[in-house]
Design goal:
alpha+beta, 90 residues
Length: 90
């Protein structure tokens, strides 16, 4: 299973981002930052990989930019994270 984890500056921004994205029909969820990642406010949003660029552009327009993002892969009960770049011009 592959998903993208996005971090924000603080918890309130993560919650505001979740609300805005949910209203637009995105499949997104606030969750604690995985223990394998030490960054941000301790909370993050989970996205489907195909939604991250469009969601990031939507949030940027509303002043809720994603601070950092990671791709999460899970294989045989092991998780790994790889930092991903979100394109500003999308």
């Amino acid at each position: 299973m592959i998903e993208v984890i996005a971090g924000f500056e603080n918890v309130s921004r993560a919650i505001m981002a979740e609300q805005a994205l949910t209203e637009q029909g995105f499949d997104v969820r606030v969750m604690p930052m995985p223990s394998g990642i030490r960054a941000g406010c301790g909370f993050c949003l989970r996205f489907l990989p195909e939604d991250i660029e469009k969601a990031a552009a939507f949030l940027r327009e509303r002043g809720l930019s994603i601070k950092e993002a990671w791709e999460k892969k899970e294989l045989q009960f092991q998780q790994s994270y790889r930092k991903v770049v979100i394109h500003e011009g999308q």
